[in-house]
Design goal:
With 356 residues, this protein is of the alpha/beta class. Helix content is 19%, strand content 31%. Helix 6 crosses helix 7.
């Protein structure tokens, strides 16, 4: 018979949820957010945009297909979105100790223990999600029996972009055209999507002055936390806008490009984290189902006159991308590279490459 340790999720408003530990046995804290996707926990856990967050999965079961092997392809991880788990912890209603998948080489619990990440199951994640939807994403902590208590931790007060960005310039792929990729917490599938299209990718740290090197296009990646913490990146994007070469941004990249243009950003009540967010391309009836992971949004009303929204969220009307009316600058708040999630909008990489 399995032995379980009691684990309690405590929200900052005093609400508690009692469950069982199935990962690394240590207390932790962070911002509690929920994701409504049915699959994709290896990709979500390694997505740098989840840095500092406790991830709640609304799909009832977790771990049923195990974890794929850690191996590289084309200089990046083949199955993961970074080189380690970024979530502070993961929360599920039920955990499957018996996994089955032809690619799996270990269980989710084994992986969590290897990377020292707590996991908790046996709680009503539907009730927890309804609470977060009503009151908004909030700070929380997981305390496991026999482990020390911890203080609440607010990741949005920290420069998470600087924390997860690469430290040195890296090179990926080959081609006649060169794309500078500003790493604000880039997912590996963005690199895959670019190199598959025959361009050389120069991956630079979030505060690296890329305007000093030759390039054909600028790509601003996704990333975690509050975009107001990345003012150095915003300043560099403004310099790039003066140069005038094509610019594309994803997620955090959308927010930083918007800030460089002069728009304002605000925090959403509970963010968009799922595989099924519907967006509409402005000026058309084209609608797409998108993968998303963000807690902040661009204020459409603050976009300057020479900019306009490119996509709009069909659930709540929030901004899902911007474009310049005359120059080759555009961005998407969602994830066209997916991983995990639908690939309906991967064509945006083609639109960017065609501008080079």
């Amino acid at each position: 018979m399995r032995q379980f340790k009691r684990a309690v999720l405590i929200l900052e408003d005093g609400t508690t949820f009692e469950g069982k530990s199935f990962g690394y046995e240590a207390s932790t804290s962070g911002e509690v957010v929920f994701n409504t996707a049915m699959t994709g926990y290896p990709e979500s856990l390694t997505d740098p945009s989840y840095e500092g967050q406790i991830l709640v999965t609304t799909y009832p079961i977790l771990g049923n297909y195990g974890v794929p092997p850690r191996r590289e392809r084309d200089d990046v991880s083949e199955y993961y979105e970074s080189d380690h788990i970024h979530c502070r912890a993961i929360v599920a209603q039920d955990y499957s100790y018996d996994h089955s998948h032809w690619q799996a080489d270990r269980s989710l619990a084994q992986w969590l223990k290897e990377e020292k990440i707590p996991g908790i199951y046996g709680i009503d994640t539907r009730q927890l999600t309804k609470h977060l939807r009503e009151h908004g994403s909030m700070l929380g902590k997981i305390v496991i029996d026999g482990c020390d208590d911890v203080d609440f931790y607010d990741p949005n007060r920290e420069n998470l972009v600087g924390k997860v960005s690469c430290r040195e310039v890296e090179y990926h792929g080959a081609g006649e055209k060169t794309v500078v990729l500003v790493d604000c917490g880039v997912k590996h599938n963005i690199i895959r999507c670019l190199t598959r299209r025959g361009v050389k990718v120069v991956r630079v740290p979030w505060n690296y002055d890329f305007t000093t090197i030759p390039y054909d296009g600028l790509f601003i990646s996704n990333g975690p936390g509050n975009p107001d913490m990345a003012e150095e990146t915003v300043g560099l994007i403004r310099k790039a806008m003066e140069i005038g070469k094509p610019i594309c941004g994803i997620c955090m990249g959308n927010q930083l490009l918007s800030k460089a243009a002069g728009a304002k950003i605000y925090k959403l009540k509970y963010g968009h984290r799922s595989h099924n967010q519907p967006v509409r391309r402005v000026g058309s009836n084209q609608c797409f189902i998108t993968s998303q992971n963000h807690g902040f949004a661009v204020d459409n009303e603050t976009l300057p006159a020479d900019w306009e929204p490119l996509f709009i969220n069909m659930n709540d009307g929030t901004n899902e991308g911007i474009r310049h009316k005359t120059k080759p600058f555009f961005s998407a708040q969602f994830h066209p590279e997916a991983s995990s999630g639908p690939k309906d909008t991967e064509f945006l990489f083609d639109e960017f490459i065609n501008l080079l």
